[in-house]
Amino acid sequence: DAGVTQSPTHLIKTRGQQVTLRCSPISGHKSVSWYQQVLGQGPQFIFQYYEKEERGRGNFPDRFSARQFPNYSSELNVNALLLGDSALYLCASSPSPPADNTEAFFGQGTRLTVV
Amino acid sequence: AQSVSQHNHHVILSEAASLELGCNYSYGGTVNLFWYVQYPGQHLQLLLKYFSGDPLVKGIKGFEAEFIKSKFSFNLRKPSVQWSDTAEYFCAVGYNKLIFGAGTRLAVHP
Predict the structure, then answer these.
(1) Can you tell me whether residue A83 is helix, strand or coil?
(2) Structural domains in chain A?
């Protein structure tokens, strides 16, 4: 069975540019969350979507946005990139609504480097 | 504010040694508790989870964790580590979103 897939795996962008990261959840999972993992730190929550609706947002600037499509895949967009946005971006999917007891399954992540 | 604290950032052990990684959390309400592991070059994988019930939770690969509500702790243990346990370990708390600790890098020497 395919796990959570993310694309691309690596990306290099210039300051000020915009980037779109993509995530396909495990088949049957309707909830997708995004996390940012800076080197040496644990993942930080950015967004959660369930059934195409935003269900949670972390403490990130408005330059970060996301959406979920009818097939439950998701995109994370970051505008006006800063050097500090360089990180591993993780997508996680889960089968249940956010209020239920459930675990999150993580993808391999997209390594974004801003130069 | 909700937070997770992992006491050890780097741990070095010899094979067959016992392991205990500390995790304390600050969270006002019902807690779901997790330990995730990230092996070199691989994605985050769930080791074990606690939602309710028996506070001693057994996970994969011989790991276990104990939820002590009065101490706001969820420490991870393994009686005898192997070289293949070399990885980074993350404690996480969450109900609607996951809050992770900074992680503990474990190196096991043969």
Answers:
(1) helix
(2) 5-114 (2.60.40.10)
At B103, phi and psi to the nearest 5? 95, 155
Query: Helix, strand, or coil here: B70?
Result: helix
CA B64, B6, A101, A43 dihedral sign is: negative
**DSSP summary character for residue B65:** E
Contact call for B102 and A42, based on CB within 8 A:
yes
pLDDT digits (tens, 9 = 90+) for B51-95: 999 999 999 999 999 999 999 999 999 999 999 999 999 999 987
Q: Do B96 and A55 touch (CB under 8 A)?
A: yes
Chain A: give the shortest CA distance to residue B17, in Å: 25
Every domain of chain B and the residues it spans: 3-109
What whole-number distance in Å separates Cα of residue B73 and Cα of residue B65? 10
How far is the C-alpha of B43 from the C-alpha of A2, rounded, in Å? 13
Q: How far is the alpha carbon of B49 from chain A, nearest alpha carbon, in Å?
A: 8
Question: What would the pLDDT profile of A84-113 be if each residue is shown by its tens digit?
Answer: 999 999 999 998 776 677 889 999 999 999
What CATH number does domain B3-109 carry, 3.30.1330.20, 2.60.40.10, 3.40.50.1820, 3.50.50.60?
2.60.40.10
Closest of A93, A90, A112, A11 to residue A44, by C-alpha: A90
